[in-house]
Hints:
Low-confidence stretches: none
Shape: elongated
CATH class: Mainly Beta
Radius of gyration: 13 Å
CATH architecture: Single Sheet
Strand order of the largest sheet: 2-1-4-3
Number of domains: 1
CATH topology: Rubrerythrin, domain 2
Largest sheet: 4 strands, antiparallel
Structural class: mainly beta
Number of helices: 0
Distance between the termini: 30 Å
Amino acid sequence: MAKVKRDIIAFKCTKCENKNYTVYKTRNVKDKIELNKFCKTCKAHTAHKETKVK
C-alpha cells in the first residue's frame, strides 16, 4: 500500500497570534484552512488560520 505524503501545519489564533494546534495535511490540498477553535489565552472560540510549523 502506498504511503500518503503529508505535511505538519499549525493553526494560529487571529486575535492573539499564538500557535495552538498542529495537524497533518496532505500535500495535494492547495487551499489554506481556517477553522473556529478554542484559544486558551483568549479563553474563547476564535478563528484560527493555517501557518507553517517551526
